[in-house]
Amino acid sequence: MFNVYEFFNRINEVNPAIRLDVGQPDIPVRGEIIEETIRALREGETGYTSTSGMAELREAIAEAEGVSPEEVLVGPGAKILIAAEIAMAERIAVVAPHWNAYVLMADQFGKTVEVIETGLENGWRPSPEELNADLLILNYPNNPTGRVLSRSELKEILELAEESGTKVLSDEIYAELSFVDFTPVRELYDNVVTVKGFSKLYSMTGFRLGYAIADEKEVARIRRFIESTVTCVPPFVQRAGLKALKLREELMNEVREEYRRRAKLASEILRGLDFREPEGAFYLFLRVPGDGLEFAERLLNRGVSVFPGVAFGPYGDFIRVSLSGGRLEEGLRIIREEVQCALESPATGGWAGSSSGAWAGK
Predict the structure, then answer these.
(1) pLDDT one-digit tens code per residue, 274-320
(2) Given a cut of 90, is residue 7 above it in pLDDT?
(3) Is 186 exposed, middle or buried (0-12, 13-18, 19+ CB in 10 A)?
(4) Burial environment of residue 151 by CB neighbours within 10 A (0 to 12, 13 to 18, 19 or more)
(5) How far apart are CA 55 and CA 72, in angstroms?
């Protein structure tokens, strides 16, 4: 199994000039959030607190999300909340391409995983005929494709989940960074756990602050997992989250528009190559000639880092480009040059990655 974290360590060793690999926002954390964190630390908010999260923070999240505080649980990052659901399930289904950690966590807990493959040719649309799982993981806006399912597309897969009695884990970490209409799963489906966090919109990756939304019974199940593992989120981090929520509307407009601009820029520079223009998040999933891992190494030799598509499922002829790095335009032009160079190389024999034999950049 490919481990994206091992490849990430390899990138760090090389230390390329242009980092377009990791999902680390390059927009700085707002000063008000930093100041609130420091204030809370100086005032001694450094001890244990409620496993569910501070009441003030849960109430603020509930207000922002249109749910009750009893349906909210705060955790040290979204990842541990996802891990809790995977640990409590028996059979996992995940739509590919998918974040590498879902399968790594399932493997860690000894769970079986059904991968629902999608393809560029059908617009990354999931269309399974049946589900043999008690937990289906959905992630939209999607990492790595930037795809956002329409309401009707989402209803199709949720109807299948309902038929099979499958709980849905909706990883909506990029929900506020959708460039098109976004439908939260909980609007259409009751048996759902929504997981979100502060890492992407607020750039608070190192704060490790996330939250789950579910019915009270499911919140209690997740809380028991948190109690037995990581205990609680530090109160000074939760104070930072409270301050961030006060800036939510302002940041949603600013940050979303910045990533929309970058997605348009990337789509223009890579026009004519094989990808679907992102509809959200800050990634572009690009088909390349030949092996994606070799292509990523080739780019690394030119001082540009990306992740190979194999990190996200059976997509060996793709790479994921993160649009959150510095010198983005320069890096994108190098990627285009390398694709064209590979296409012209006798070793690749032209384009060999597409079943249609054609480039179809959207």
Answers:
(1) 999 999 999 999 999 999 999 999 999 999 999 999 999 999 999 99
(2) no
(3) buried
(4) exposed
(5) 10
CA–CA gap between residue 269 and residue 267 (Å, rounded): 6
How far is the C-alpha of 67 from the C-alpha of 59, rounded, in Å? Answer: 9
The full set of domain ranges for the chain reads 4-23+250-344, 31-247
CA distance 198 to 33: 11
d(CA 212, CA 193): 7
SS3 at position 115 = strand
Report in angstroms the alpha-carbon separations of 338 from 155, 298, 345. 40, 8, 10
Q: Where are the alpha helices (DSSP H) in the chain?
A: 4-14, 31-42, 55-65, 78-88, 100-108, 151-164, 216-229, 235-246, 248-269, 292-301, 328-344
> Does CATH number 3.40.50.2300 belong to domain 31-247?
no
Domain range 4-23+250-344, its CATH number among 3.40.190.10, 3.90.1150.10, 3.40.50.1220, 3.40.50.720? 3.90.1150.10
Query: What phi and psi values does residue 156 have, to the nearest 5 degrees?
Result: -60, -50
User: SS3 letters for 1-13?
Assistant: CCCHHHHHHHHHH
| Block residue for tokens 């999607």 | 142
pTM to 2 decimals? 0.92
